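thought: user wants a sequence for this fold. calling inverse folding tool.
action: design(structure=
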């Protein structure tokens, strides 16, 4: 993964109490957020992750961008007591984008990952308009739709948002229906964590996919192994890139050392014991010659 700043939006609306994911949708999100943080920070230690909620009385920033896992866990523990109301997705995305603007490292790529397990009240026109603003601001938006939603209207709205905001497949939408598997295990096999080389996440969750080099296997069969392989390959690519850069710098240094400056091989002192190249001997000889001249006037 590239150097990035990521704001994660957790859905703490009343729907997150539902138990179709054990022990609840909220706890399933908390587990998945832990996996996302680990994947992002291990792929690039300089990447940072923030956390906010979008349910209750309104969106709330739980943790600004950080590299400390404990701050995210503290935020999740705090918001667990505020599960209520409905989701305010559009407002949450706007606040998350403002939090990304205050990132310390401006070279970090901006990204928002939003969990959605409740109906979205914002109309499609408003969401599409917001998507255009996010695209203009070079912010990638990923949606994780999970749980049994009451209707398909929410998915259609988010698909319209995703089709508007995505550029070069940098933004993804994955739908994870309830099953016997953990939400975090299923999320590992999606393009959100596998990266841009994985299968497209539009519509139902893509099974398999991902570029694992010489390792030919289905990542959905063993999500943890898939994540470990991807991280190992990224670390190896980073190591090779670093080694190539060091080799290039060493070659440049060797070339510079071979270039001699003018007078570099000239001795420090001349035969008279004076600094060489200073012109003092020549001046002295000229002065002596002038003294030996007779005055013929």
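)
observation: tool returned 297 residues.
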């Amino acid at each position: 993964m590239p150097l990035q700043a990521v704001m994660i939006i957790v859905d703490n609306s009343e729907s997150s109490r539902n138990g179709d994911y054990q022990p609840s949708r909220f706890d399933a999100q908390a587990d998945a957020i832990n996996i996302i943080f680990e994947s992002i920070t291990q792929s690039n230690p300089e990447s940072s992750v923030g956390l906010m909620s979008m349910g209750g009385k309104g969106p709330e920033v739980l943790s600004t961008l950080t590299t400390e896992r404990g701050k995210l866990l503290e935020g999740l523990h705090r918001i667990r007591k505020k599960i209520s109301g409905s989701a305010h997705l559009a407002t949450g995305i706007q606040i998350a984008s403002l939090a990304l603007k205050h990132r310390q490292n401006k070279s970090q790529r901006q990204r928002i990952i939003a969990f959605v397990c409740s109906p979205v009240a914002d109309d499609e026109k408003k969401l599409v308009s917001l998507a255009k603003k996010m695209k203009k601001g070079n912010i990638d938006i990923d949606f994780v739709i999970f749980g049994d939603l009451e209707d398909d209207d929410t998915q259609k709205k988010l698909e319209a948002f995703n089709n508007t905001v995505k550029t070069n497949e940098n933004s993804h939408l994955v739908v994870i229906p309830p099953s016997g598997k953990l939400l975090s295990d299923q999320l590992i096999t999606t393009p959100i964590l596998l990266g841009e080389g994985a299968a497209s996440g539009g519509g139902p969750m893509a099974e398999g996919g991902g570029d694992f080099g010489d390792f030919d296997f289905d990542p959905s069969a063993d999500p943890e192994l898939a994540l470990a392989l991807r991280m190992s390959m990224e670390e190896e690519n980073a190591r090779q890139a670093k080694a190539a850069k060091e080799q290039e710098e060493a070659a440049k240094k060797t070339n510079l050392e071979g270039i001699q400056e003018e007078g570099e091989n000239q001795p420090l002192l001349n035969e008279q014991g004076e600094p060489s190249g200073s012109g003092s001997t020549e001046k002295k000889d000229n002065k002596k010659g002038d003294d030996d001249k007779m005055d013929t006037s």
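thought: summarizing for user.
answer: Here is the designed sequence. Strands lie at 4-10, 48-53, 60-66, 109-116, 139-146, 173-176.
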